Amino acid sequence: MSVSALFLLSSLCLVITAQGKQCSKPVGRQNMQLKAEYILKETFEDGSTVAFACDVGYTPAEGSGVITCTAGIWSPVQLICQRMNCGSIGDVPNGQVSYPQGTQFGDKALITCNTGYKLVGKSEIACGNQGWLDRLPTCEVAKCLQPSGIANGMFSPRKEDYAYREVVEYFCNKDYTLNGSKQITCEENEKFKPSPPSCIWVECKDPVIPNAEHIDGSRPPHRHKATVIYNCKHGYRMIGQATLTCNISSQWYPRIPECISNGNVVVGGLLGGLVSITVMLVQNYWM
Ligand SMILES: *[C@@H]1O[C@H](CO)[C@@H](O)[C@H](O)[C@H]1NC(C)=O
Ligand SMILES: *[C@@H]1O[C@H](CO)[C@@H](O)[C@H](O)[C@H]1NC(C)=O
């Protein structure tokens, strides 16, 4: 073998050993991973490149994620990944935005509307990998549609819609009684509260009280809140109240009284007295 041939052979060997210096799987810095296309390989040829990408929820703050394998050694990773920060989501006119945890990846912005406004859209928006995940909601003036009408009555004012806190008042036709709340108010949820009243026919029957006489008050028809006053005839005494009022259930309140013969009461009292004397005597006897 000639000298030149030997030289050629040895330089070939050098090239092969240098080329044979492969790199093993590279390790990145915090919060990053090899891009998907490199993940399954265990060894990398001399001169090849791979790239790191930030984990979900992290974004590149500086530097490149690309590194090169040179003679078995990877060039240093320059990339720095920091947690995604969505920053302020912006302002909502007539509303408030708060960030209970902060504005980083996974944190939520909470939006509320000032009183009298209702929220249209999402009240909670999360910070995603690329920024806030939804559009800001809007706060719109709350208004109520016309409430329902009632039988035997009406309401005022009558309009197409009503502003927040606006009051509607109900009235009953003559001789009808309003049962419920006379006024209802337009609330934030665009509904009136409480529910509308009803107009009912209230009429109490003329009381029939044996051995009593009507001495004062209403004569039939007895409407809501009419009062009547009764007295027992001579020789009778009253159990109950003398003055009655016609209540909204068309009943007299309190209950209709009774007139009881005074004679009966005396006999009853005497009997009661006798029984208690007997009991006392029996008790004394045994002691
Ligand atoms: C009055 O309204 C209330 C509540 O709606 C109802 O429960 C009650 O039965 C009504 N009263 C009469 C006498 O209709
Ligand atoms: C109306 O009067 C009746 C009988 O006195 C009573 O039981 C009822 O509770 C009263 N109803 C109202 C709404 O006051």
TrEMBL record:
Top-rank taxon: Eukaryota
SUPFAM superfamilies from the UniProt entry: Complement control module/SCR domain (SSF57535)
Bridged cysteine pairs (disulfide): 54-81, 172-199, 232-259
Family matches, as InterPro entries: SEZ6_CSMD_C4BPB_Regulators, Sushi/SCR/CCP_sf, Sushi_SCR_CCP_dom
Residues of the Sushi domain: 21-83, 84-141, 142-201, 202-261
Keywords, ordered alphabetically: Disulfide bond, Repeat, Signal, Sushi
Cross-referenced Pfam families: Sushi
Ion transport as UniProt keyword: no
Signal peptide (residue range): 1-20
Protein name: Membrane cofactor protein-like
Source organism: Poecilia reticulata
